[in-house]
Amino acid sequence: MKKMQHFLFSKVKNVDMEMFDNPEFYDNYSRALRDGTWMGMRVFDNIVRFLTSFFIVLALGVIIASDLILISIIVVSAIINILAVNSINKSWYLWSKETEAERRMYNYVNRTFYRQRFAGEIKTTNVSSLLTTKYLESAEVINKKYAKTHKKVVWLHTAHNLVKGLIERGLVYVYLAYQLLKGYITISIFTSSLNATFQFSSNFIDAINILTTLKENSLYIDDFIWLVNYKGKIEGRQGIKVDKLDELNINHLDFKYENTSNFSINDLSLNIKKGEKIALVGLNGSGKTTLTKLILNFYLPSEGYIAIDGNKYEDIDQKSLRNRYAVVFQDFQIYALSIGEIY
Predict the structure, then answer these.
(1) Chain centroid to CA 23
(2) What is the mean pLDDT of each run of 10 residues along the chain (343 residues)?
(3) CATH T-level topology, domain 2-229
(4) Which helix (H) or strand (E) holds 144?
(5) Which of 56, 83, 135, 245 qualifies as a cystine partner to 324, CB 3.0-4.6 A?
(6) 251 phi and psi angles, rounded to 5 deg
(7) 303-308 and 265-273: which strand pairing?
């Protein structure tokens, strides 16, 4: 568990910043981080359970293997079970996927209201009303889709248990009772056959259920594998290693965020030499933070380039490049760590 979580932490560090601006990516990303680790452990537990049930089935199968009618009853019951359980699992997965964005908003509002960091804004602005509205809207979508899914699942459970009881239990009792009344089997064989059949059926269906659950888990694990296979355009890039920074050159730089029509930065050129002190002053939204993120190589420019000592960013080892900078973002109170510890 710890190794997998550590791997995920290292993988997250290599996700390009621009991907966090993409809602579809962020939904998949959130699901992969949340479900990937515990689903892996659940798969392991299910495999152990499957092997246990499988060996019990083999042992009991010796007793009833010669009776094709009993085997047929169990197989029919198992098929019904597979169809029902698979449909139930898929329904809940689709609910989880369809409500990902709303559940993130729901949890975000919860976190915001109890964190000290946001207490001032909540007390002095109308943000609390907006957040409350978002919370209620998200809750309404979640509850509506949950009710719809739950209604479908309840009917599936009811139909499944009813048919399973009639076929698996009822037919076995009727068939063995008929054998007993006709004198084909003794009372001791009737009892042992009944117990063996129910034990066989229970473990056989349990094994099938586990296989069905593994299929359900694979839906979640697909999201995890998607994150594992993700390769960024910026993060993890190899190239020239730089151990100093004497001059930073910004050449005819253009940049706009994805799905926006206006440029945040337009045709900006700037040279900064070692030892110089530069202040960027401007209105909110004028591009100061965006320029900082471009200098840190969080995003790729739409046009133009940035270079260190004549080496363009695209040719520089990404980790080496970041090591040339120390930055304090405007959201300074983020971690329970001092700046000294971080840098």
Answers:
(1) 14
(2) 62 78 76 66 74 76 72 78 81 88 87 76 77 90 93 84 73 81 82 77 76 68 74 84 91 89 90 90 86 91 93 90 81 54 52
(3) ABC transporter transmembrane region fold (1.20.1560)
(4) helix 127-164
(5) 245
(6) -120, 110
(7) unpaired
Does the predicted TM-score (pTM) go above 0.90?
no
- Supply the DSSP string of 295-327, one letter for each residue: HTTSS--SEEEEEETTEEGGGB-HHHHHTT---
What CATH superfamily classification does 247-342 receive? P-loop containing nucleotide triphosphate hydrolases (3.40.50.300)
Q: At residue 274, what is the residue type?
A: K
Specify the residue for token string 């034990």.
199
pLDDT in the model for residue 335: 47
**Using N-to-C axis directions, what is the helix angle for 100-114 and 127-164, rounded to 10°?**
130
| CA pair distance 230, 161, nearest whole angstrom | 42
Burial of 179 (0-12, 13-18, 19+ CB in 10 A): middle
Phi/psi of residue 268, each to 5°? -95, 130
The token pair at 146 is: 């949950």
Domain boundaries, the chain: 2-229, 247-342
Q: Identity (one letter) of the amino acid at 338?
A: S
